[in-house]
Amino acid sequence: MKTITVVFLLALATTYLMTPWVRRLAIRAGALDMPDARRVHTEPIPRWGGLAIYIGVAVGMLAGLARLYLLAPSDSVFLGRALQFLGLLLVGTGVLVVGMLDDRKQFSALIQMGALLLAGLVVQLFGVQIEGFAAPIGGKFSEARWIPLGAWAIPITALWIFVVSKTMDTIDGLDGLAAGVSAIAAFTLALMALQAADLLDQPYPNWLIAITAAAIAGAAGGFLRHNFNPARIFMGTGGAQFLGFMLGGLSVIGAFKTATAFAILIPVLVFGLPFLDAGLAVARRLLSGQPIHKPDKKHIHHQLLERGLNQRQTVLILYGIAAAMAVVALILFRKAMG
Question: What is the radius of gyration, based on Cα positions, of the chain?
Fold first, then answer.
């Protein structure tokens, strides 16, 4: 627990200290979010805050992994345990870079989708894959029946990671919203991993999951200080999709493998708010005959603003909704553990 706390604080401090430097870099590079009819802000805001988040996550993760390396009986044992997480960070680097380029060049929705699906395929080479799920038979871990997905595991994993990455990007419409929701989701995954490590007597990979989740939560929290209304910098497409990719991949390693009877429901609840917002957006656009990738100003946060709430009030309400869904997920997870 001490290591996980140190990882959280290290990631938080790193991102917090790096964000002003990244802000100056974005201004020099011309990576600015210009106001328009769909956006809430009224003046240009630097993007690329995702780079500071990435640095914080990487520093926190690698510090935690280094600690576990010192405790491992051999290099091969450590690598076997850490490969999934190193692969997740490596492929996440590519997601960040493509997203930062998108912040400058504004890629089409098709290119964004292709890049995220490709990342979801490549990360499976490191063992990050939804291999199957537990059938809802009985209510305990020992009583669940495991159903393998076979060849379907490849496209299903890629699609899951794409959906989580894209929905996290979709809710990044108000100051601090995506960072706060990401921190809540990461904190929830960390608590699940710690519960699983204790109740199932399986320290690996659950300690590694908790370390990675703590790094993500810390980095998102450190960025939030600069991103909460009034924001001085945005995380941009790169930051939102990087956070979504890391969280989606982490849920594949953790929640899908240990949640048993609630294996599908629990990860969905962890990302409940962005999933709800994205689902409503898709339904709304289909019913109106618009392309589902076409952006609009009718997301949940836009509708709350139209009802007279200010940005801070809206974000705090949505934090509360995300936290409530996370609590339900934790309760179900505990029940699934027996």
Answer: 19
Residue with tokens 């504004």: 106
The kind and range of the H/E element at 182 are helix 177-199
Chain centroid to Cα 226, Å, comes to: 19
- Residue whose pair of structure tokens reads 């659950």 in the numeric block: 206
pTM to 2 decimal places = 0.87
pLDDT of the chain, 338 residues: tens digit per residue? 788 999 999 999 999 999 999 999 999 998 888 765 555 555 788 999 999 999 999 999 999 999 988 888 888 888 888 999 999 999 999 999 999 999 888 888 889 999 999 999 999 999 999 887 766 555 555 566 677 788 999 999 999 999 889 888 887 778 888 899 899 989 988 988 888 877 766 677 788 999 999 999 999 999 999 999 888 999 999 999 999 999 999 888 876 565 444 445 666 676 667 667 766 666 666 666 666 666 656 667 667 766 767 888 888 988 988 888 888 888 877 776 66
Alpha carbon 119 to chain centroid, angstroms: 14
* Residue 150, Ramachandran bin (φ over 0: left; ψ between -120 and 50: alpha; else beta): left
* Helix (H), strand (E) at residue 132: strand 132-135
CA distance linking residue 96 with residue 194, whole number of Å: 28
